[in-house]
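re: the backbone from monday

yeah here it is again, tokenized this time
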């Protein structure tokens, strides 16, 4: 499939919308955040995505990964595509230079990951998982483990996975039964079965490094008694090179509706040798480092698919001739029709909103890492679930609209429109379902009494004030949406029964994202300073899509009583 990297969009958002200049002004990112370097990096990543990865998208779907005699065989061309990623340094782009990484800001890495995901999501998932593991090891592993694993993972020679889920323990990670028994030499024997392991194995890296959650003999029940272990496919020898095979295996690969090129494995560990990462019984805090990295990345995966699906649908709409044009001077193709134009504008407007939210979340992470400021940390923590959910929901909505733009041809696999919809669907489920993200937002993230949300709303309203005189027709509805968001946030914080918050968590999270989208579109219109394409798109979003926030936020305030008034018997009747 063809793909065009949206380099101009990244440059515009970095300069005018998400505040990336703050990142470049910090001591930590003063060199890697410079405009010229960032532009060069994104340009190279764009070429890689367009020329090397995009041609693999369709072939990976048609001929997915398979398990043959215990060996995972990846899709044709994936090994070469992965090699190009590794040789370009993209696996370790955010890692510390001390370990061989580029030390790039998360904001830049996020843009790179978006482009690679748009080009070939199945393959991009591999380095994304490794990037998360690199961050977890940098924060929590011993110096000895770092010395062995980080250089190989940053170079792309080795890849990484995350092993949380078990057949009987999905979102309830604390119910896991995997065990870790001390071997007496500083290592541990890890036993258990894990499911849904993305890229659990491959045939193009020399080692696969699994971060596995398991319970020590003295570990308490629940999440507080879980520890984290590094369990490699091949045990490193005295020189740090892959040695003897470890006691682990891929039991099977899942048969999925999409992401066929990404092998999703059932993994079995039979007294496999592993090493503790972080402190005993503190595995969840270490794993959350990787999970939060992945949650930003998965939200961007949804955005990636949305961009790819939009480009695919736009190209089709510009070529497909059907019916008589309803407008003078039209193109003669279906893009002349009002409903097709509506769908394309909806897709483009939501892609912009999702991209702005993702990059703003990344900026907050960069500022928190560079400054250690508690306010930036709270901002990053709050935007992470919003980005994950809205980005993946956007991918699902936009890819579905992409099928609709194609009409009957969208239901035919040969056009490629359906693949976007199939590939993206899981992103709203893995790395914590979007419902769990919403519960986290209204629960843990509101433990500050809504302070982080209030600060963000205050900041946005101050910026909207500056636009009221020149862009009154756009600024006023954005302002009103922020006031509704503030009132709903205050209502949620006032609920002592968490279930009343949870009942409206998803509409609140979606409504929050809708308001953020209106704000970012307004900033884009201001920066354009004229009736250009971004201002026209902002008007479309603010007038037609932003009003959805009102119903969503009203829904959020209804509590749980009416949900439980419907008994299981009522639902079955």
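seq for it, each position gets an aa:
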């Amino acid at each position: 499939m063809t793909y065009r990297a949206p380099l101009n969009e990244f440059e515009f958002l970095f300069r005018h919308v998400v505040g990336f200049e703050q990142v470049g002004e910090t001591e930590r990112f003063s060199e890697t955040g410079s405009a010229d370097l960032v532009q060069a990096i994104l340009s190279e990543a764009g070429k890689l995505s367009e020329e090397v990865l995009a041609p693999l998208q369709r072939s990976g779907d048609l001929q997915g990964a398979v398990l043959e005699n215990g060996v995972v065989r990846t899709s044709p061309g994936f090994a070469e595509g992965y090699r190009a990623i590794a040789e370009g340094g993209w696996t370790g782009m955010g890692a510390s230079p001390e370990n061989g990484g580029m030390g790039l800001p998360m904001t830049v890495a996020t843009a790179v990951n978006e482009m690679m995901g748009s080009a070939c999501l199945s393959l991009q998932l591999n380095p994304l998982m490794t990037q998360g593991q690199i961050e977890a090891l940098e924060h929590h592993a011993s110096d000895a483990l770092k010395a062995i694993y980080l250089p190989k993972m940053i170079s792309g020679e080795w890849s990484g996975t995350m092993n949380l889920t078990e057949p009987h323990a999905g979102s309830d990670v604390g119910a896991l039964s995997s065990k870790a028994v001390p071997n007496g030499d500083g290592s541990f024997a890890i036993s258990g079965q894990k499911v849904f392991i993305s890229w659990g194995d491959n045939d193009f890296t020399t080692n696969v490094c699994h971060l596995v959650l398991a319970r020590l003999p003295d570990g308490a029940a629940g999440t507080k008694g879980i520890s984290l272990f590094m369990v490699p496919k091949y045990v490193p020898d005295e020189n740090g090179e892959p040695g003897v095979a470890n006691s682990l295996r891929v039991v099977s690969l899942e048969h999925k509706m999409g992401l066929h090129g990404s092998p999703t494995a059932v993994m079995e560990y039979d007294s496999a040798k592993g090493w503790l990462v972080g402190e005993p019984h503190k595995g969840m805090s270490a794993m959350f480092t990787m999970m939060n990295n992945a949650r930003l990345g998965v939200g961007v995966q949804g955005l990636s698919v949305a961009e790819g699906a939009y480009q695919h649908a736009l190209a089709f709409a510009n070529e497909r001739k059907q019916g008589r044009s309803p407008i003078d001077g039209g193109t003669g193709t279906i893009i002349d029709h009002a409903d097709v134009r509506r769908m394309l504008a909806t897709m483009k407007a939501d892609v912009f909103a999702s991209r702005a939210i993702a990059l703003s979340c990344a900026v907050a992470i960069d500022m928190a890492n560079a400054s250690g400021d508690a306010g930036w940390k709270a901002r990053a923590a709050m935007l992470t679930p919003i980005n994950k959910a809205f980005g993946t929901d956007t991918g699902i909505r936009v890819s579905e609209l992409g099928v609709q733009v194609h009409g009957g041809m969208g239901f035919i696999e040969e056009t490629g429109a359906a693949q976007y919809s199939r590939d993206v669907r899981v992103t709203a489920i893995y790395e914590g379902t979007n419902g769990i993200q919403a519960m986290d937002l209204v629960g843990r993230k509101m433990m500050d009494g809504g302070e982080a949300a209030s600060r963000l709303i205050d900041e946005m309203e101050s910026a909207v004030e500056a636009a009221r005189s020149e862009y009154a027709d756009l600024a006023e509805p954005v302002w009103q949406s922020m006031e509704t968001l503030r009132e709903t946030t205050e209502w949620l914080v006032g609920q002592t029964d968490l279930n009343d918050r949870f009942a409206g968590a998803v509409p609140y999270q979606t409504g929050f994202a809708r308001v953020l989208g209106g704000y970012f579109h307004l900033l884009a219109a201001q920066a354009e300073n004229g009736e250009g394409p971004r201002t026209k798109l902002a008007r479309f979003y603010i007038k037609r899509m932003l009003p959805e926030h009102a119903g969503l936020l009203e829904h959020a305030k209804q509590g749980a009583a009416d949900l439980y008034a419907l008994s299981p018997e009522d639902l079955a009747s």
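Residues 159 and 397 are 32 Å apart (CA to CA). Residues 436-563 form a domain with the Four Helix Bundle (Hemerythrin (Met), subunit A) fold (CATH 1.20.120).
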